[in-house]
Design goal:
149 residues; 8-stranded antiparallel β-sheet; two-stranded antiparallel ribbon; 10 strands
Length: 149
């Protein structure tokens, strides 16, 4: 089999949020990581009196979470400001993640959920690192589909 040529890096990835699933705000200027986890089907199993192997079945999907890392700023409209509002107002938010960037036909992952984490950054006086904050987005699913626009 020939080695893939479809690989990519994150340099074109986009991450956007919305409170209505229609009007999205691009967070590319103030976020640098999107790490989804979970969303797996539950698996059930049991044994019967006959046989030596289990009976196995798939159950319902588990919730999906994503860790979003942002550069902490106190600038209106940037990630920390938006997620502070989502947290305090208990807003349901839509997340749209595009690994290859915004391009018609490329894949996007869109889901809705909540931000259960406050936007309070940690800091360390002995460090010269930029202050970053990670928050969790907690949703029902993050299905993939082709971008329409």
């Amino acid at each position: 089999m020939v080695q893939t040529i479809g690989h990519m890096t994150s340099k074109h990835s986009t991450l956007e949020v919305s409170t209505d699933g229609v009007n999205y705000t691009d967070l590319g200027n103030s976020t640098n990581s999107f790490a989804p986890a979970g969303g797996s089907h539950g698996v059930g199993s049991t044994h019967t009196f006959t046989g030596t192997t289990p009976v196995v079945g798939l159950g319902r999907k588990e919730p999906i979470t994503a860790t979003i890392r942002m550069v902490y700023t106190e600038v209106d409209g940037e990630a920390a400001d938006l997620f502070d509002g989502f947290f305090n107002n208990q807003d349901e938010i839509w997340v749209r993640y595009r690994p290859k960037g915004a391009a018609v036909g490329s894949w996007e992952f869109v889901g809705r959920g909540y931000c259960p984490d406050p936007i309070v950054p940690a800091s360390d006086a002995t460090s010269s690192d930029i202050i970053v904050k990670e928050v969790t987005w907690f949703g029902t699913e993050l299905p993939m589909g082709p971008q329409a626009s």
